[in-house]
Design a protein that fits this description.
The complex is a heterodimer of chains A (about 425) and B (about 270).
Chain A (H helix, E strand, L loop, with lengths): L1 E8 L5 H7 L6 H10 L3 E8 L3 E8 L2 H16 L3 H7 L1 E4 H12 L11 H16 L4 H20 L9 H13 L7 E5 L2 H13 L4 E5 L2 H11 L2 E4 L3 H4 L5 E5 L9 H10 L5 E5 L16 E5 H67 L5 H27 L5 H11 L3
Parallel strand pairs in A: 5-6, 5-8, 6-7, 8-9, 9-10
Antiparallel strand pairs in A: 1-3, 1-4, 2-3
Chain B lengths: L1 H23 L3 H29 L7 H22 L5 H18 L14 H36 L5 H4 L3 H34 L7 H23 L3 H25 L8
Helix pairs in contact in B: 1-2, 1-4, 2-3, 3-4, 3-5, 5-7, 5-9, 7-8, 7-9, 8-9
The chains are: A alpha/beta (about 425), B mainly alpha (about 270).
């Protein structure tokens, strides 16, 4: 039995192909059943997310299993086989195990260390489990993959630092204000990135949201989107007195807020802290505002720098995670290879037990009329001899030694198993 | 039971070391270990003080050793209360070195129990010293929070958002708890001064003797009154509030140590 991983992801296939190959929720179960009908495949699991589609299989003949599974994929989704085959990666044996561990640990993700993939893997496993398409090997493998991912998350800080502008802004806001639920937020201007950050902030939960825009209609439209209050652009400076967090992106070519404006506002606020994020290029908030006590001003470059340094931090953590993967593969490998000896061990035990039962039956026939107590004693002795005789061979078969294949052959021959 | 003091000192040291480790690399174990060691140290320290109380028959705040020991005990008490009430990461890392340092100073002074003039051995001794020491301890904690605020403020302003920045608490919680401690400390100091003058009346027949200790207590009281006033009226908080908390504590320390050592006052323990 070998483990086989076949799939494609954001690195090997474009979105078009990924979309075609993706399994809709209700198509996964038919997919699993179809895979199990293939001759050499014993167990199957399908992971399908927007960034990857992967099959985790266990099968007897690696080459044949890979070929038939790839053909199955092409047929199932009506895709040209050649085109699909080029985008697919195929890992067998321990390479396959490594791939699964890395995927679950988010080492293969588009955003390194993003936490969603583990949940997706768990869901895929649950579905396969309820379909009954997994068995001894994949069950063990998936449980291991999930525990490896958890180990990576607790032992490294790969998922800890924000790696997007809007997450970084929210994290920073929390480091300034502790809680945001009693803080007022103003979106000044509009723009894709500003709106994204604003959405993220709104989702985290702030008290009131104000939206100011040069075009009042736009402010009204945006405000209704955020469940906030629209402001006329001329009013925004006055409203800053009650605002704690500002995201600014007006597209103006000069500063809409100067240090002098801000000094007045800060005084009126009794120096309560303010967090200003200037996403506009060119900048709309005078950088000197950031010199004021208790005013924290970040522009887009500042935030990008934080994101970059967090990303490089994740890369460092990733190398620790790879080490964990290597360790865990070794453990799993040992378990896999112990499986080879299992049939021989069972056969040996059965053969020995058979001899014992036969001989005991003969003996009891001859010794007519002995009591139950004596029978028990004789049975006990027979079991003792059998157990002691097969104990050492069994231990040798279980041990992970190089000559195990040879031992398996010898035992089979000696005992005619 | 002199061993209790030594054991308390040892546990405070363990707590301090774990606190240092937590600054460089925080983990659940160092954090739990640090608090655990501080709690054990505090327990042993309390036993030591109770023991001295029973042996001497008066509040253990008479000799220099006792006074500094009780002063330290009050800091640990307030620290543990704050720790229990608020989630302030790394607070112990900033407090325990002081605790250990003061304990070490206390350990250097003679441990003999000193006799106390019967006229002073009244319940005022207990009330007055506890109020004063708990107010000093509140100011001490506010100073520690002020230092933490300034470090975190530096990180946020200079936009270096890694390492220690991640482990330090948010600016707002540091500032809020700081102010609460100052208000608490001020309230306790007010009561300490009132109780002190009532005690003075029963012992010496006068409410106010213009002793250096009394004068400096008044100065400390005025400084904290000003800090609170500035915060309420002008909104003096954050960086400047933290600096004031630190300066206030320096004056407090002088009131506690300096007056007796430099100005040769007639306050109880000397």
């Amino acid at each position: 039995m070998s483990i086989i991983t076949i799939g494609l992801n954001h690195k090997t296939a474009d979105i078009e192909l990924r979309e075609k190959l993706a399994f809709d929720k209700d198509r996964i179960v038919p997919g699993l059943k179809g895979l199990l009908e293939l001759d050499t495949i014993a167990e199957a699991l399908i992971v399908s997310t927007c960034n990857r589609v992967e099959l985790y299989l266990s099968g007897s003949d690696e080459i044949e299993s890979v070929n038939s599974a790839c053909r199955f994929l092409a047929e199932f989704h009506n895709i040209d086989f050649e085109k699909l085959d080029n985008a697919l990666y195929k890992h067998t044996g321990m390479e396959g195990v490594k791939h699964i561990f890395r995927v679950a640990g988010s080492l293969d993700s588009m955003v390194l260390g993003e936490p969603q993939i583990l949940g997706q893997i768990k869901d895929a496993y649950d579905l396969a489990l309820s379909t009954g398409s997994t068995g001894l090997i994949l069950n063990k493998l998936m449980k291991k993959a999930i525990s490896v991912a958890k180990r990576i998350r607790t032992e490294t800080s790969i998922s800890e630092n924000a790696v997007s502008i809007s997450y970084t802004a929210v994290e920073l806001a929390k480091k300034i204000f502790e809680q945001l639920s009693d803080k007022n937020f103003m979106l000044l201007g509009a723009g894709e990135m500003a709106e994204l950050a604003a959405k993220h902030l709104a989702r985290t939960g702030v008290k009131d949201i104000m939206v100011a825009n040069r075009t009042y209609e736009r402010a009204v439209a945006l405000a209704s989107e955020f469940n906030g209050t629209p402001l006329r652009f001329e009013e925004f400076k006055n409203s800053l007195i009650n605002t704690d967090i500002v995201i600014c992106s007006t597209g103006a070519s000069n500063f809409v807020l100067t240090k002098a404006d801000m000094e007045i506002i800060v005084k009126k606020r009794k120096h309560k802290p303010m967090f200003l994020i200037d996403i506009s290029v060119p900048r709309n908030l005078d950088p000197e505002i950031g010199d004021l006590d208790g005013v924290y001003l970040y522009d887009i470059d500042n935030l990008q720098d934080v994101v970059d340094s967090n990303m490089s931090q994740r890369l460092i953590e990733a190398s620790k995670a790879e080490q964990i993967v290597t360790e865990e593969i070794e453990i799993f490998n040992k378990w896999m290879s112990s499986l080879y000896a299992v049939p021989t061990i069972i056969a040996l035990r059965n053969a020995a037990d058979q001899i014992k039962t036969d001989e005991l039956a003969k003996l009891f026939n001859r010794l007519n009329g002995i009591g139950e107590k004596e029978k028990k004693a004789i049975e006990g002795m027979a079991s003792g001899i059998v157990n002691k005789l097969i104990h050492n061979p069994t231990a040798a078969l279980k041990a992970d030694d190089e000559d195990r294949d040879m031992l398996i052959n010898v035992v089979n021959k000696l005992y005619k198993l | 039971m002199i061993i209790l003091f030594e054991l308390a000192l040892t546990f405070y040291m363990i707590s301090m070391i774990l606190g240092f480790v937590e600054v460089t690399k925080s983990s659940r174990y160092t954090s739990v270990g640090m608090t655990g060691a501080a709690i054990i140290g505090f327990f042993l320290h309390s036993l030591n003080l109770i023991d001295r109380f029973i042996l001497s028959g008066h509040m253990p705040a008479i000799s220099v050793h006792e006074a500094i020991s009780l002063f330290t005990w009050s800091i640990v008490l307030i620290f543990l209360l704050i720790k229990y009430r608020y989630k302030i990461g790394l607070l112990g890392s900033f407090i325990m070195p002081w605790v250990f340092g003061f304990m070490l100073i206390s350990s250097a002074f003679p441990r003999e129990i000193q006799p106390l003039a019967p006229v002073l051995n009244s319940f005022w001794l207990i009330i007055h010293t506890m109020l004063a020491f708990l107010s000093y301890a509140s100011f001490g904690l506010s100073c520690g929070l002020g230092i933490m605020f300034l470090i975190q403020y530096h990180f946020v302003k200079s936009k270096k958002l890694s390492g220690l920045f991640k482990r330090l608490p948010s600016l707002n919680i540091l500032d809020d708890v700081n102010y609460r401690l100052i208000k608490t400390g001020f309230f306790l100091l007010t009561l300490a001064i009132i109780s002190g003058s009532l005690w003075s009346e029963t012992a010496w027949g006068s409410y106010w003797l213009w002793q250096p200790k009394q004068v400096w207590s008044l100065i400390t009281w005025l400084i904290y009154a000003m800090i609170i006033h500035l915060r309420r009226k002008v909104g003096l908080r954050g960086r400047r509030g933290s600096i004031l908390a630190i300066l206030g504590y320096i004056v407090t320390l002088f009131t506690f140590f300096g007056v007796d050592l430099l100005l040769k006052g007639q306050h109880a323990f000397l």
